[in-house]
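FORM 7B: Structural annotation worksheet

SECTION A. Query
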Amino acid sequence: MGVFIKNEVSVVGAGTAGLIAAKELSLRGVEVSVYDQKKVLGTPVRASGILSIEGLRSLDINYSRAVTNTLYGAEIHGGGRTLRIVSKKAVAHVLDRKALNDLCHDEAVSAGATVELGKRLSGEELGRLADGGVLIGADGAVSSVARHFSMGEIKRYAITYKAEFEAAAYDERIVHLFFDNEEARGLFGWICPNSSELLEVGIGIDSRNGNCKAAFERFMRRPEVLGAIKGSKRISGEASMIPMALRRRLVDPEHEVLLVGDAAGQVKPSTGGGIVFGGNAAKIAAEVVKSKLEGRSELIDYERRYRRRYRIDTWIHSAINRAYSSMSNTQLGLAISASHAFGIDAFLGRYGDMDMPTRVIRNLLKDMRISV
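SECTION B. Predicted structure
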């Protein structure tokens, strides 16, 4: 039987969301410990992610040492057509996910949190942690915390497979996205320059739509992919599971348990990206937990605040995913052609925001008022 120090808050999962929650709580003077079953901190070596610059800034972390490349736009391919969306200013960074986790760990520990690795928790131990104070589940898409406290199932997942290659000559400013509902229904394929030396090729599909590794091998035979990696050495490969919908409950008020990050299903359904939504949810959680400990609020306020803040943006991301997932490849090509004809590429190049579609609308309206 494990022995735990009694804490005001315990966090299960030392990923980005869990560590941001621990840091924010510690900065508010709350005693917090983080537990993770991994013996080595972070996601697998060479894992990466694309995050908008605005989204990164919203997390209040010093992310600079995790940046491996900066992007200025994207080329979207589908049905034999291409839409090029490029901005004059940088719009996103490619980050080394392990480096990001390491710096989040350092910031959490510097703020006063305790992190214990190599700790696999039983259901009994989870119950005892909840009995000793507030418990935050940040333990990934198949969360043991959510399962133990019966917080509902995530209804939809995507599975991805990606690999890195020693990069040949390639435009480092642009990520390429490939929509193909014969091969990648539910998500898309991509070619992303992770750095000047490394090129990432990957594909994601709805988990109900077959074998992702097989889809990846077919994707690798596309002329665009073969041209990009010609002469390059493959140096890694890995699969992952991404929640594509919120869990039914984010809070168990009876046991004083809440979920953040992938454990809660806090992702953008259009792309499966979860760091910005999950990290900001962790900040909201810290604010509410501190207020709860002072007797000024209830934990359910966390779920209410998160849903209120992200409801419209999540709905828009879901609508985008449903739209492109329901089209035939011919319809995808027609949609891309129509988007170019109506100037949507230029519009997104000026106003686009990867994370918050409502911000695009606000910026457009602001610009229109200035112009008038």
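SECTION C. Observations
The chain is about 40% helix and 25% strand. The longest helix spans residues 300-326.

SECTION D. Sign-off
Analyst initials: ____
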